[in-house]
Design brief:
Elements (H helix, E strand, L loop, with lengths): L5 E8 L14 E16 L2 E6 L3 E4 L5 E5 L5 E9 L7 H4 L4
Antiparallel strand pairs: 1-6, 2-3, 2-4, 2-5, 2-6
Length: about 100
């Protein structure tokens, strides 16, 4: 897509699998959308259950790790953008005509 202001990834973890590392970011916040399945995220030590249709926004400095449930895989989209970089919303940024 050659995006210049966001990174988008599609991720899939099979049942019982997890992202094998805890991570945070220097500047980028992440938005996660759960497309299918079940699992959990551990964010700064807090466990959050995840299921199809859930969305999360995670601040850059928050430490995070994702897990599929033991009986179901999980598929999710991750959108990564620089925190506080949105200067105008759609209506304010639109040029009509």
């Amino acid at each position: 897509m050659s995006l210049t202001g966001a990174e988008i990834s599609l991720n899939e973890l099979p049942a019982g699998a997890n992202v094998p590392f805890v991570h945070s970011h220097k500047e980028n916040e992440e938005i996660y959308g759960i497309l299918s399945g079940n699992g959990k995220a551990i964010i700064d030590g807090e466990e959050i259950s995840l299921s199809t249709g859930d969305w999360l926004k995670i601040a850059p400095a928050a430490k995070r790790q994702f897990f599929a449930s033991d009986i179901s895989g999980i598929t999710y989209i991750c959108i990564q953008v620089k925190e506080n970089s949105l200067e105008h919303f759609t209506a304010e940024d639109a040029v009509i005509g």
